[in-house]
Prior knowledge:
Layout: E1 4-12, H1 15-23, E2 28-32, H2 46-58, E3 62-67, H3 76-88, E4 93-96, E5 110-113, H4 122-131, E6 135-137, H5 144-152, E7 157-164, H6 176-181, E8 198-201, E9 207-212, E10 219-221, H7 226-232, E11 234-239, H8 246-266, E12 271-273, E13 278-281, E14 295-296, E15 318-326, E16 331-335, E17 344-348, E18 354-363, E19 366-369, E20 380-385, H9 387-394, E21 398-411, E22 414-421, E23 426-432, E24 436-437, H10 441-452, E25 460-468, E26 473-474, H11 477-502, E27 519-520, H12 529-537, E28 542-543, E29 558-560, H13 564-567, E30 586-589, E31 592-599, E32 604-609
Parallel strand pairs: 1-2, 1-11, 1-12, 2-3, 3-4, 4-5, 5-6, 6-7, 7-11, 10-14, 21-25, 27-28
Antiparallel strand pairs: 7-10, 8-9, 8-30, 13-21, 15-16, 15-20, 16-19, 17-18, 17-20, 18-19, 21-22, 22-23, 24-26, 29-32, 30-31, 31-32
Helix pairs in contact: 1-2, 1-8, 5-7, 10-11
Amino acid sequence: MKSEKIELLAPAKNLPCGLAAVNHGADAVYIGAPKFGARSAAGNSLEDIEQLARYAHRFGARVYAAVNTILYDSELDDAQQLIWQLYNAGTDALIVQDMGILQMDLPPIALHASTQTDNRTVEKLRVLEQVGFSQAVLARELSLAEIREISAQTSLNLESFVHGALCVSYSGQCYISEALGRRSANRGECAQYCRLPYDLLDGEGKILQQNKHLLSLKDLNRSAYLEQLLEAGVRSFKIEGRLKEVDYVKNVTAFYRQKLDEILEQDGGRYRKSSSGKTTFFFEPAPEKSFSRGFTDYFLEGRNADITSFDTPKSVGEELGELLFAGKNFYEIKTQQTLHNGDGLCFVAADGNFEGFRVNRVEGKRVFPFEMQQIPIGTKLYRNYDIEFDRQLKRNTSERKIAVELLFEDIENGFRLTATDEDRVCVSHEILHEKVVANNKTQALENLRKQLSKWGTTIFSVSELKVEQSEAFFIPSSLLSELRTGLVEKLEEARVERFRYCAPGNQARNHEAVFPQGELSYLGNVSNRLAEEFYRKHGVTKIAPAFELQAATGEPLMFTRHCLKYSLSACPKYSDKEIDITFPLSLRYKNRVLNLEFDCACCEMRVREKN
């Protein structure tokens, strides 16, 4: 039985983040292109992308470039030129949202459907596969059952988010930032209105919740569900975070590398990682010590109450324990954790605000802050900055090595060293040199083995060394070093070349494929003539312009499975409590009011701007 390739896909804000992702075990890295990426603050130069691709390819890891905004007509030529430049820089796939790209003259590069294409139905994903996509990022809101159903009816490679920040709206279907601030999420400029504090009002203007982050969700963590996701059909496990720094990438990538490796080691060979090399870590990964708003698996097993982060959109970190006692200049904390001078602790204050303080000094379970605050006894405390863990991450934290078998031989006029790596890439390097029989043959052989086993800071490690000589020769250590160095250069180049030769191109396209909808509203995000041409070619007869081109007055600005009716225990499907609430509900932020609608048949909440 042939093993299926499994991919751990990590984010890269920039080149250092991308290199860290590869070094900490990523099978693939996704990075923002110089422009047209859905994180406008995370663009990268072609030179950096080329450097990252060359580095990643030595390990058989891939680099995906995000070109996933919608495009305007004036940008189409620039986008096509950029795509060719990305291809020539070594990019392995494009992550795209705008279907106009499929009407362009494209290089032979794989296409991945961004989560912004709203990938949550079998019918949609079937068409994406038919028109040329090889991989699709599933909507975060899907359950295991829904993923299973999609997997059973398409051969698309399915990519699923497993960690990181959650958009409260279906991706690609959120227009609130554009409507209220003229910053389009579909153009990479989201202003994060979902993280703001709101008052929740009932139909009579009564305040039900005050100054709470009612659209803010916890962060995703599906590390406990990796096996179930595999069985459901997921083949690419994606970590969110193209705005995160190197330490986050190191910690979270290492954590999921360990988790996936444990599964792969126990599955009897059914799955294998899609890149090469064994990664060793010099720290213990702990995702709760990196930025998080608390964790949720979201809707993976259906609706649950533990998805929201109403108190704060900021990092909560790890739960420490509770406050036992407050002295004149210290707090005593009930905790199992070790505290350090310089840690950052936080808590939800009595007024509902999220507060924090820096630890100046620690004595056992007593912490002495720079400044005391009034914190009630019994308050739950969190640590969102662990200074010792941060120091660990600043050091060398990993080593990724590709195993090689070496064969040393003497040839007619010198010596030859041959390497065969774990992917069966084989190269040889020869040096012409006078062959002198050693006086001390045992010592000569020991030195030979010692010198040829020194691969130091290279990406290779020796798993086996065979020596086949007609005699035991005296060979200077400098010559063995030269032989080894030349072999490393050849092997690295051969690995990059092999990867280039084996890289998949774009998929065959079925021009007769019919799109599942005959009409597209503003939700289709059609913002240019090529996108319109694509949809008409695939059976769509009526196409409205994108919201960014012509604001759809009065239409919903956000579609979400997060439901405030459910949060208030007022959903008849999930609660039998009698709640005295007058509908409709609305959200208020300063002078802005947003009306809430509840589509119970679809189990969705919709948000509109009040006229």
